[in-house]
């Protein structure tokens, strides 16, 4: 409320300062709209920490730990082949965590700087959407709630981990992603419920540092959303690294006793018990809408608890938009950010759209897994005629020279037009290699287009070139 009792007015209020919300706020401000962004996350220093799940307890800290643990693992297992030997390699977990925290605070501070530079008003506290595009803002500082209003409101409240029945988080022994990013010592045995993206990434971190990691996965198929050629190859490589991935394994309950977590599980052999020093629960995430919407806000949720939006990200309330993890679509930072930009542009009266078909997926294991577009199993289900080309990194000079040549590239193209329908990679730098494929698909490029483009030698990208040639069975460095 302002001094004269009126609600403070903005062109745009964003609730949520993650990669969806903060990007939407910056773009709205760039377009000349007066913008406020409300976010309630507090960092380890007790101050506001913009960037949401992604910067604070998601993408960035997990990648920092993946990099640290990869250096340690390579030092122990891979550098000897290069003639490098180091006696008594050791890992100081406190230093690793401090480096990770430092990366996080640089980035969260960077977003605050960007807000200042773009004149986005940063409000640290909770936002609640009321009727008629009004927002109640409750500051963290303990002051009274303020009433704000805007012509347009963007909800970007993100997501939180799902809990499963009979497995209660205690944040010490039974932990979620935030807990697994802050373990102060390497657990001797780490159990992970869910062999999905978080389970594989954070399981890899602690396995590389010396934990015996067991992933308990309910489904009978490993990574069913990925192309099955890729997930089978990845599964074999992860097993060789020591990750114990148990498919078709349903966790019935977990309890903590004598500093151990006892898990009761059911698999094809029947019911059994297994103990761990720590248990990470990573069974998916759900939209976070607690306290976000007043009863008369006019915003409806769908049957999955997501904020209901149309293809333009408009909710059921006029002038209220929603983006990112709290709406339909993949729960990915880059998807949230692109939706944020699109909505800010729509609010400013511009044309904007997102191609959900070309949102890339990346899993930052070693080897990395990345894909865009349709999998072979999806094309079969949909009755689409396609041709397939593939190429192993083991046949690339660069992969062999690096000593990192596991995996392959697989390209799927329409039989009639040769348009690329999907690209699937498991291998070194897959996260970077996929970008070329996303661009080609955005331009409706054909396998022939990729095959005609000059790729530098020796690079890993030659595997993409050769896979594209292989679609037409004319690869040079493999049998066709
Ligand atoms: P969020 O990032 O969740 O941000 C929402 C923000 O809104 C939070 O700060 C929250 O506190 C705040 N908020 C919610 N309600 C209110 C309210 N009422 N008032 C004020 N503030 C509110 N994605 C990738 O693309 N790549 C990765 O490598 C990757 N790695 C991940 C690793 C882990 C361990 C996890 C957990 C996730 C990872 N993700 C990754 C997913 C990614 O973090 C999310 O898709 C992304 O953060 C979603 O962005 P968002 O803006 O929708 O929501
Ligand atoms: P996920 O959906 O990737 O994996 C969850 C897994 O848990 C699934 O395989 C599911 O079958 C399994 N599962 C569910 N219930 C179970 C049960 N009761 N017992 C055993 N297994 C069970 O979810 P996540 O790993 O928690 O990650 C959440 C989301 O965060 C991801 O879907 C992704 O959108 C995002 N994320 C992205 C990245 C990235 O882009 N690199 C990294 C981490 C997280």
Number of domains: 3
> Which quaternary structure do these chains form?
single chain
Estimate the mean pLDDT confidence.
97
CATH class of the largest domain: Alpha Beta
Summarize it.
With 480 residues, the protein is of the alpha/beta class.
Overview of the structural elements:
It is a single chain. The longest helix is centred in the first third of the chain and has 26 residues, at 93-118. By secondary structure, the chain is α/β, with parallel strands linked by helices. It folds into three domains: 8-161 and 286-354, FAD/NAD(P)-binding domain; 174-283, 3-Layer(bba) Sandwich (FAD/NAD(P)-binding domain), CATH 3.50.50; 358-471, Enolase-like, domain 1, CATH 3.30.390. Strand 20 and strand 21 (420-427) form a beta hairpin. Helix 1 packs parallel to helix 4, helix 3 packs antiparallel against helix 4 and helix 3 packs across helix 6. 31% of the residues lie in helices and 25% in strands. The protein contains 13 helices and 21 strands. The strands form five sheets. A five-stranded mixed barrel has the order 1-2-3-4-5. The chain has a five-stranded parallel sheet with strand order 7-14-8-9-10. A five-stranded antiparallel sheet has the order 17-18-21-20-19, sandwiched between helices. Bound molecules: flavin-adenine dinucleotide (FAD) and nicotinamide-adenine-dinucleotide (NAD). The site of flavin-adenine dinucleotide has 36 residues, from strand 2, helix 2, helix 3, strand 3 and helix 8.
